[in-house]
Design brief:
CATH architecture of the largest domain: Beta Barrel
Oligomer: single chain
Strand order of the largest sheet: 11-10-9-8-13-12
Low-confidence stretches: none
Order of helices and strands: EEEEEEHEHEEEEEE
CATH superfamily of the largest domain: RimM
Structural class: mainly beta
């Protein structure tokens, strides 16, 4: 498991005075403001973030040290991460997305179906994007108790009971 958790992404500038567009992945999206320092995957640290407004699908925000539109635009697509230790402990049936990526997916009979590439959510439920072991296009597996009855982080695998025809 990674020692960093991604809690948001930056969408470039908002205005001309260094504000950024921000998408929060926190359960309560406004909680992102409470985490500090925020770091990027390449190690750049921001010691402060202040939400300045609501936008469609996110917020406008100020990052300490980002003063210009050009600096904000250069951050487009940047992930914001925090140390795992700063995150709350989760109940047994909840997982951080980053912990699911790379897990092997097997069916209930033990056959390897593939590997989790990403976790997506388009509103209704989380979906595991699975790279099939047989190759080809990725498959979106509903991340529900019915389709994914077992997640074993220690063993690095998921046991899935996918809907009929999904992996055929």
């Amino acid at each position: 498991m990674s020692d960093k958790i991604t809690i948001g992404t930056l969408g470039g500038s908002f205005g001309v005075k260094g504000e950024v567009r921000l998408k929060s992945f926190c359960a309560d999206p406004q909680d992102i403001e409470a985490y500090s320092p925020l770091t990027t995957p390449d190690g750049v640290a921001f010691d402060g973030l202040t939400l300045t407004g609501r936008l469609k699908n996110g917020f406008s925000a100020r990052l300490l040290g980002v003063e210009t539109k050009e600096q904000a635009d250069a951050l487009r697509g940047t992930e914001l991460q925090v140390d795992r230790d700063a995150m709350p402990n989760l109940p047994d049936d909840e997982y951080y997305y980053t912990d699911l990526m790379g897990l092997e997916v097997r069916d209930t009979g033990g056959t390897v179906l593939g590997t989790v590439k990403s976790v997506q959510n388009h509103g209704a439920t989380d979906l595991l994007e699975v790279l099939p072991s047989t190759g080809g296009e990725t498959i979106l597996l509903p991340f529900t108790m019915t389709s994914v009855p077992t997640v074993d982080l220690t063993a690095g695998r998921i046991i899935a009971d996918p809907p009929d025809g999904l992996f055929d």
